[in-house]
Amino acid sequence: MHYTRDNMAGLLRSHDINPTHQRIEIAYALFSRQEHLSADQVMAIVNTRHSETSKATVYNTLKLFLEKGLVREVIVDPSKVFFDPNTSPHHHLYEVDSGKLSDIDAEHVVISGLPPLPAGMVTEGIDLIVRVRRTS
Amino acid sequence: MHYTRDNMAGLLRSHDINPTHQRIEIAYALFSRQEHLSADQVMAIVNTRHSETSKATVYNTLKLFLEKGLVREVIVDPSKVFFDPNTSPHHHLYEVDSGKLSDIDAEHVVISGLPPLPAGMVTEGIDLIVRVRRTS
DNA sequence: CGCCGATCTGGACTTTGTCTAATATTCGGA
DNA sequence: TCCGAATATTAGACAAAGTCCAGATCGGCG
Ligand SMILES: [Mn+2]
Ligand SMILES: [Mn+2]
Ligand SMILES: [Zn+2]
Ligand SMILES: [Zn+2]
């Protein structure tokens, strides 16, 4: 599957999001790259050409995408949140020094032996983060 | 093992940390409670009685404890870091709504099928976070 | 064209955390 | 015990991420 600006409107509609110019640009930034981006990075990307999208809109839009399940949040760096266009179950490899974040396919990873959940609780997700460092 | 202010100095020295009044208070806040605390919470606790420890000292001290391996950092909430006096290998259960964070013993948890690390990389830690929500 | 709800915006504000330069404390040695 | 150097603490300025709001703008429809 190949992402273009032109198929962003359909993607947004399929997630019950009204497609606007700004939302299309922001979605395109994430989906065309298939990378983990911070709000700051998204803002820099969408404002490279000319369109001028405000900070408030970038944050509002990313939050909207999150609520609608179009993207997922990755909390791995204490100073900023990353947004992930890959919403299929997967884990993350985090290079502590460089801040580089990459995906680990969940398909072959098995997590067993977790204790039963407290009553009245339901799992929203299991985040597995492998923190690595360059051999010094 | 039972933690008192009086045995904090020894604990600090055993981790190569010069025990000072402020450091003892901060360590005592964490170890006597055995809870995950944010810097803000630590500051509130140590300043409840009278001692008046500054914000800079709270942050400096928590970072020092981290470097010396006396506490560990838990990154689970996008808005603040939690400090964990439990440095033995364990995982976390995070209640998304309430923000409550609790330990999952690592002893019976098995994680298998992780892909090999990129060359020249060494694992610094594996963080497993089970995000749960109250059944609605 | 003109209306109206939805969206976008600048900028003030909040929160978490960092930095700095001045002050205070600690601690080993005389 | 006293002293000086090294170490630690501090107030407050600063920075960065993120939130909020009231007013401006957009865009689809009659
Ligand atoms: Mn989806
Ligand atoms: Mn230890
Ligand atoms: Zn990912
Ligand atoms: Zn813990």
Description:
The structure is a homodimer of 136-residue chains. Chain A is of the alpha+beta class and 136 residues long. The first copy, chain A, has a domain at 5-83: Winged helix-like DNA-binding domain superfamily/Winged helix DNA-binding domain (Arc Repressor Mutant, subunit A). Helix content of chain A is 32%, strand content 30%. Chain A has helices at 5-14, 21-33, 39-46, 55-67, and strands at residues 37-38, 72-77, 80-84, 90-95, 101-105, 110-112, 121-134. A three-stranded antiparallel beta sheet of chain A has the order 1-3-2. In chain A, helix 1 (5-14) packs across helix 2 (21-33) and helix 2 (21-33) crosses helix 3. The mean pLDDT of chain A is 94. Chain A binds chain B through residues 73, 75-78, 81, 93, 95-96, 104-105, 108-115, 117-118, 120-135, and chain B through 73, 75-78, 81, 93, 95-96, 104-105, 108-115, 117-118, 120-135. The structure holds manganese (II) ion (MN) (2 copies) and zinc ion (2 copies). The site of one zinc ion has 7 residues of chain B, from strand 4. Chain B binds a DNA duplex (30 and 30 nucleotides) through residues 18, 20-23, 38-40, 53-57, 59-61, 78-81.
CATH topology of the domain at 5-83 in chain A: Arc Repressor Mutant, subunit A
The largest sheet of chain A is: 3 strands, antiparallel
Biggest chain pair interface: A-B, 37 and 37 residues
- For this structure, what is the CATH homologous superfamily of the domain at 5-83 in chain A? Winged helix-like DNA-binding domain superfamily/Winged helix DNA-binding domain
Q: What structural category do the secondary elements of chain A indicate?
A: alpha+beta
Q: Report the portion of residues of chain A in β strands.
A: 25-35%
State the CATH architecture of the domain at 5-83 in chain A.
Answer: Orthogonal Bundle
Our measurement of the CA-to-CA distance between the termini of chain A, rounded to an integer number of angstroms, reads 39 Å
For the largest beta sheet of chain A, what order do the strands appear in spatially? Answer: 1-3-2
CATH class of the domain at 5-83 in chain A: Mainly Alpha
Q: Are any ligands bound, and if so which?
A: manganese (II) ion, zinc ion
Q: Let me know the number of strands of chain A.
A: 7
Helix share, percent of chain A: 25-40%
Q: What's the rounded overall pLDDT mean of chain A?
A: 94
- SS field, number of helical segments of chain A: 4
Unreliable runs of chain A, pLDDT <50, ≥5 residues?
none
